[in-house]
Give the backbone structure.
Amino acid sequence: MAFFPASLENLIDKFASLPGIGRKSAQRLAFHVLALPDGEAEDFANAILEAKSHVKCCSVCQNLTETDICPICSSDRRDRSTVCVVSEPRDVLSIERSHEYKGSYHVLHGVLSPISHVGPDDIRINELVKRVAAEDSEISEIIMATNPDTEGEATAMYISRLLKPFDIKVTRLASGLPMGSDIEYTDDLTLANALKGRVQI
Ligand code: ZN
């Protein structure tokens, strides 16, 4: 039986469905939203709708952007011959923070995971192969920067096999990244070193 009015229960449910938010935190957030002045609550709701309607995937690298082609892909200061493949948009941010990398990216939006039923067609692998296979492709190196855990490794190996027929170098982030770690939480220096010391796979 519900303790709160139905619409409040619904709001709590919505917060509780967010990653990392437990029932208690969801209640706290819902009460906070209820206590907001009308205008602010509306701004909050609109921010969700606006982000949802404006943010899309870059038609080249699949990173999140508000334009058809993202600022990194459209910048003429970035090296288009090197493509760093990451699993999530937030990993692009981490690598940009290391200031070590001047190439472009490809965001997979996930990793291969048989346990979670994520197969090659569920993430943006085909888009990467198409980029490499394109007639006007300038790509000469693909850096696999998926997390050094079981699924990240398997994804890197799968993609490197797919790219074998093409005349390009496929490398993997090197030393300093402990097995099972997460690119997002790796410090800038370790990530910079891992990029510098990447090895061919
Ligand atoms: Zn892009």
